[in-house]
Amino acid sequence: MFNWGQDIGIDLGTATVIAYVKGKGIVLREPSVVAVDSNTNEVLAVGREARRMLGRTPGNIVATRPLREGVISNYTVTEKMLKYFINRVCGRFLFSPRIMICIPSQVTEVEKKAVIDAATQAGARKVYLIEEPIAAAIGAGIDIAKPCGNMVVDIGGGTTDIAVISLGGSVVSTSLKIAGDKFDEYIVKYIKKKHNIMIGERTAEDLKINIGCVYPKMQDTEMDIRGRDLVDGLPKTVTVYSSEMLEAMIEPALMIVDAVHSVLERTPPELAADISDKGIYMTGGGCLIDGLDKLLQEKTGINVMIAQDAVSCVALGTGKALDTLDSLDGKARKN
Fold first, then answer.
1. Res 325: pLDDT
2. pLDDT (0 to 100) of residue 335
3. Residue 5's pLDDT is what?
């Protein structure tokens, strides 16, 4: 069955791609991983299937994440991944879809052009960009059009975007290359140093999700993990505790807190007063790390709230922003 041109919102994340179709809601949520045959350059798997292959492929198959730290690191693979997802979402269409894509707040013009080009090559009729913190604020249900300050901390897989928003735009913002993936890196390093075993990204992520914390827990929890012993090279199982995870993860967590602090220091006093009253909104999968909201609240003295459906906030906001596409197109025609 043919579809007429659709409007699609895409949260093109380092860890996950979430697609929102106008009138349908979120229709796709897949890991941003692609498995490619290095001999033929053919895409073998995309999304969940490709994620299962990470760290488990033979020499001729490469399972990679084409986005690193919020930006495109492998243009060709990103284009193929987008094409696959757009085809899955749209089916066959007479008119190519209009697509709105999220980008970190501090990306360069070259990085913006790479996103636009990749989406156009993948089959988009027209591509619009929206900054992640603004999309996250809309998705969290904040009315960003009012003349009052709202602070959003969006912690994704590759980047943490912090912004103070008023009258529909960012007043002060910053983007850090410290987010979910960086926590995984710190866990891998810690386990290597403390237990003398090597673990992969997926095991580190499992530790982060199941027992990871950045604020002391009332009760210490534990988890058994398996890795390669660095002394004899054989597989080895060790028990890891949440108190150890606190040691491993506190450093990147404090870097995020410092970044929030520096944004607050640069915020105009009237808007800072609004934030003090309303609190700080946290969105993105990274904000679900146990105790991160408590740590931020303790260090800033401002109430911190985790948005409902934090993982999908950016995609939902992008979807709601699709309603403005006709007016954007109208303005472009007049200009």
1. 66
2. 36
3. 61
Chosen domain end from 248, 276, 302: 248
Radius of gyration of the chain (CA): 21
> How many angstroms separate the CA atoms of 128 and 122, rounded?
14
The whole domain housing 66 covers 2-134+314-334
Pair of tokens at residue 327: 């007016």
Name which of 186, 180, 176, 184 is nearest 257 in CA terms: 176
Any idea what the CATH number is for the domain that residue 167 is in?
Answer: 3.30.420.40
Please write the tens of the pLDDT for every residue from 285-321: 999 999 999 999 999 999 999 998 898 899 999 988 8
The DSSP bridge partners found for residue 130 are 102
Q: At what angle do helices 313-321 and 132-139 cross, to 10 degrees?
A: 90
Residues of the chain with pLDDT under 70: 1-5, 92-94, 325-335
> Helix, strand, coil: what percent of the chain each, to 5?
40, 30, 30
Query: How far apart (Å, rounded) are the C-alpha atoms in residues 85 and 80?
Result: 9
Residue with tokens 């095991």: 203
Condensed to tens digits (0 to 9), the pLDDT of residues 105-119 reads 878 898 889 889 988
Are residue 106 and residue 217 in the same domain, yes or no?
A: no
Positive or negative, the CA dihedral 239, 242, 246, 252 is positive
User: Three-class SS of residue 171?
Assistant: strand
Q: Are 66 and 73 in contact (CB under 8 A)?
A: yes
Burial class (CB in 10 A: 0-12, 13-18, 19+), 68: middle
What letters, b where the CB count within 10 A reaches 16 and e where it falls short, cover 186-197?
Answer: bbbebbeeebeb
Closest CA to 315 of 123, 70, 28, 120: 28
